[in-house]
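Dear support,

I submitted the protein below through the web form. The confirmation email said the job was done, but the results page showed an empty box. After a refresh the structure appeared. I'm attaching both so you can tell me whether what I see now is the final result or a partial one.
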Amino acid sequence: MPVTPNSVLQVLIFLVIVLLVTKPLGLYMYKIFNGERTWLSPVFVPVERFVYRLSGVNQEEEQKWTGYMISVLIFSVVGMLLLYAFERTQQWQGSFFNPQGFPNVEPQLAFNTAASFTTNTNWQNYVGEQVMTYLTQMGGLAFHQFVSAATGIAMAVALVRGLARRSAQHLGNFWVDLTRCTLYLLLPISIVIALVFVSQGMIQNFNAYTIVHTLNGQTQTIAQGPVASMEAIKDLGTNGGGFFNVNSAHPFENPNALTALIIILEEISLGAGLFYMFGKWVGDTRQGWVLWIVSAILFVIGMAVVIPAEQTGNPILTSVGANQQVSTTQAGGNMEGKEVRYGITISALQEVTTTATSTGTVMSFHDSYTPIGGMILMANIALGEMIFGGVGAGLYSMIMFAVIAVFIAGLMVGRTPEYLGKKIERKEIMMAVLGLLVSPLVILGFSAVAVVLPAGVAGLTTGANNLGPHGLSSILYAFTSTNGNNGSAFAGLNGNSPFYNWTLGIAMLLGRFAEVIPLLALGGALVKKRVVPASLGTFPTTGPLWIALLIGVILIVGALTFFPAYALGPIVEQLLMQAGKVF
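What the results page shows now:
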């Protein structure tokens, strides 16, 4: 039986919880970014004013899309340089912050890591507990997990303002949006969650690593550190970079089933709430719920492929006598690389969520999933992670697809397409298409280079079998993940080489900024437009037909763009597995 009733029940309960938190979070974010009073205002309003006074920001002064984008780029460049400096000065950080005496991070790896955390990617070409000091982890990496998440949300808020305002010029003030998002949203929620994590056994200290003696007379080093504080924002901000190399599969990062549930909910909740915030802001909450429903349908489709694929198991193992059936004494299916504490369903739920939302947090090994299961994880990222999405990225990616879908709908009914009462004309569709083209150009372009250069192929680490379709999948996944600012990986590729440190780092920067520049330009164009009254020829964007059209556009665009590459990688690998051939 590929899917058990227990699996279905777990997924349904999870989606119900997400549904319940969507409206409260969306309303709260709407109030934050409109400067309305919240229950945290008495605490943070004085802090917010102090920040503006210290930095010289005039909170009443708004920016056009160009000024907003320049502010994003300046902040990101300065932040990236500061993180690079943290990494390159580790040996002088003192015994309190560097009790293990870690040396400076070498330049190419430092560049890759600085680009990674600045862009909300959190791709890690290093073993965190063996390379990064406590100061670098907290003052450098965790700091960027706050501000890169806030930057993503701020850019989505700017685009929403472009859709909601009429005949205006400005999209808001980036510095105000960044400050309010960090102070009122990310910081308080992270503090509460970190305290819950510590209560469940997640560590939070500055101790030197502990040396223990095992029963067979050997010694083992147990890493310590400020884990809970990093774990909370890592998932809430859809960052994904863990303190430990094995990420949330480590018991110090994920002690029990309660922390596992909180981690998965953290990854998806803000993205879901942003959809409701969008609907509230444009004056029609149905618009937000439509995007939520589209996300939920695509999410369920992904789960409906991954869980059966993993629960069915590997026919090659069955042919040699392995029992992969579900029973009262075993989980059954493809348990290789899965989180054995929680089983296939929760492992699959986590990995579908982490790739749908640009988080990158892992509780199980993506490299060990069946080829078709791994392909779904890769496709979630390649489609722009609009399925509830990363903080900000999900909403603006979904709006980009909505603009393209409504343009197609306008052609169908024979009139100028409109979205939320605003005409979608030449400039708007050009900006949406430019944003859409970034991912395939980066992913397929860099992957094509990597598979033909010796330096690219040399990164495949698991022997001759990895030079076939699975090796292509590993390379495709790496550039898909970095371009999509996700950060998860197939383990068959060693990214810590000069070639991959540079190319993956560049892919992260392009995936973050080359896409949002045309999207903010789209917001700048839309904010100037007047609202056109609906007529008999207006294509409605709230009903089942619109939902079906939007899903169709997302899937067709994804299939046309990436299917040829997937046909040579995971699809061939799946067919070989079904034929009983080792790959």
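Response: this is the final, complete result; the empty box was a page-load delay. The chain has 21 helices and four strands.
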